[in-house]
Amino acid sequence: MSRALILILLLVGLIAASPPHKYTKKKGGKGHHYWNATENDALYTWEQAEGYLECEEFLNFPNLGQETKDLTLDERGYVRKQGKPRALEHMCPTRDCVPDVNSTEESPGCGFKRRTLKSGNWTTTNINLGRVDWFRDAYKRLAPYRGGEGNSLKTRIGMGVPIITKWYLDANYTVISATMSFYVPSLYQKNPPASLNKDVRVEQWDEVVTYSRTWGGTRDDVEYWPQSAKQFDYLSEALSREDLKWYSYLRLTGSYIGRKEVMLADRDIVVREIKEKGPDSGVESE
Predict the structure, then answer these.
(1) Phi and psi at residue 168, in whole multiples of 5°?
(2) How large is the C-alpha radius of gyration of the chain?
(3) Residue 191: CB atoms within 10 Å
(4) Which of 87, 82, 104, 79 is nearest to 45 (CA)?
(5) In this structure, how many other beta carbons lie within 10 angstroms of the beta carbon of residue 189?
(6) Exposed/middle/buried for 77, CB within 10 Å: 0-12, 13-18, 19+?
(7) CA 91, CA 40: separation in Å to the nearest integer?
(8) Residue 274 phi/psi, 5° resolution?
(9) DSSP β-bridge partners for residue 114
(10) DSSP per-residue string spanning the chain
(11) What sign for the dihedral angle of Cα 37, 87, 68, 60?
(12) How do strand 160-169 and strand 259-266 relate by DSSP bridges?
């Protein structure tokens, strides 16, 4: 599988996983399913919304003489071809976010956010890449656990954000498997109910340092999906410039309402996990 096809798989997964975007809270609707994009744009700068200072080489000024009224410009005057992502500060007070996903940890360079995601319990299912609707299929398999009918408590427990998909690559950078995971909410973290579905498992993830990039907007935006396909390239370029090492055979994507992320994991931490768990780690040895 070529590198281009890997990006296509990631892109299709993000499209399939994205719920319909709603921008204002509707009467009778659950608050966390609705958000006000205008409010988000007014309250947060691009740097605050993204969580990092974007590198200038990834941006462009308007062309000389070009009309700017129909362009989206950031605070520095650069053209932004994708929508402003929903700020985590705008989201996490009303959602059960993964611990430290909204970390204020300072990144060592531009173009990415460095975060230490704490150890925690997740519900996970394998993605069947042979299905056309493989992403939505996995999502629906996980949903009964959060809804109550699929867990041993028979109680609706909800889920935290983001939804994380892990992509496992072999030595040729071919996608060999993938998983989708929901974060077990804080109320049930210490003692999560068992899964009643043999294809859905509860697993504890070790603490890991991640490097991420984000983008926003809606699926109707012309540049939304073309821009998203470039994010892993931008991320690896930004990390290389700072001489940071990431694990080559594992890629992650995170999905929120109004915000999408690509993530790479710190190499040393993943390598240590491989040495401790061996084949059970599920990832290729470097």
Answers:
(1) -100, 125
(2) 19
(3) 9
(4) 87
(5) 17
(6) exposed
(7) 9
(8) -60, -45
(9) 211
(10) --HHHHHHHHHHHHHHHPPPP--SPPTTS-GGG---HHHHHHH--HHHHHTSPPPGGG-BPPPTT---TTS-B-TTS-B--SBPPPPHHHHTTTS-BPTTTT--PPPSSSS-EEEEEPPEEEEEEE--TTSTTHHHHHHHHHHHHHHSTTBTT-S----EEEEEEEEEE-TT--EEEEEEEEEPPGGGSSSPPPBSSTT-EEEEEPPEEEEEEEEBS-TTSTTHHHHHTTHHHHHHHHHHHTT--EEEEEEEEEEETTEEEEEEEEHHHHHHHHHHHGGGG-S---
(11) negative
(12) unpaired
pLDDT, mean of residues 127-141: 92
- Please classify residue 84 by burial: count the beta carbons closer than 10 Å to its beta carbon, then call 0-12 exposed, 13-18 middle and 19+ buried: buried
Are 70 and 222 spatial neighbours (Cβ–Cβ below 8 Å)? Answer: no
Share of the chain above pLDDT 90, in %: 52
| pLDDT band per the 50, 70, 90 thresholds, residue 194 | very high
The structure tokens 């929903």 sit at 86
21: its two tokens: 């975007």
Token pair for 46: 């691009």
Fill in the amino acid letter for 270: V
| Owner of token pair 């055979």 | 249
Tens of pLDDT, residues 69-122: 778 889 999 988 888 999 998 888 878 889 887 777 788 899 999 999 889 999
